[in-house]
Specification:
The protein is α+β, with helices and mostly antiparallel strands. It has a single domain, classed as Hotdog Thioesterase (Thiol Ester Dehydrase, Chain A), CATH 3.10.129. About 20% of the residues lie in helices and about 30% in strands. The chain contains 3 helices and 7 strands.
């Protein structure tokens, strides 16, 4: 299957995307009677990878909360390709694309044990002020600090 181009177009001169991959074994409670993963579990797998990536960036859910900001989902799009099955170990990759404004653009994919792409997804999360629940129209300091480190290349040293 030919890889598709990303839906997120990185601005000229932007640093390359930052990514992480997490492994997960498919458990019985995640499947239907046929041993196929229920479609509603895919966003949970995405959240696991996104959370790990946010930790890598110094913006864990706890750190965001301490900074007084939240990142609710604004958009989620999933393309299901092939099913996942009970007891498979899958790899979920989250890739964050650069954006100058107060939003997070994630591109995700899940591979099965054979290395086949089971699904692809995009997620957009916006920043809100936790006290007022209002959208932030300017990037919060925690995101600005992250972007400075990103430009400096700090997230590519593993």
């Amino acid at each position: 299957m030919k890889a598709r181009n990303t839906v997120f177009k990185d601005p000229e001169g932007a640093p390359r995307p930052v990514e992480t991959t997490v492994s997960h074994r498919i458990y019985f409670n995640e499947t239907d009677a046929l041993g196929i993963v229920w479609h509603g579990n895919y966003p949970v797998y995405f959240e696991q990878a996104v959370t790990e990536l946010l930790h890598k960036l110094g913006m864990s859910p706890h750190q965001l909360h301490q900074a007084g900001v939240g990142t609710p989902l604004a958009q989620l799009h999933i393309d299901y390709k092939i099913p996942l099955y009970l007891d498979e170990t899958i790899q979920t990759t989250a890739k964050l694309h650069w954006h100058d404004g107060p939003r997070l653009n994630f591109e995700l994919s899940i591979q099965n044990e054979k290395g086949e792409i089971a699904c692809r997804a995009t997620i957009v999360q916006m920043f809100i002020d936790l006290a007022t629940r209002n959208a932030l129209w300017c990037s919060p300091p925690i995101w600005e600090d992250c972007k400075k480190k990103w430009i400096a290349g700090e997230f590519y040293r593993d």
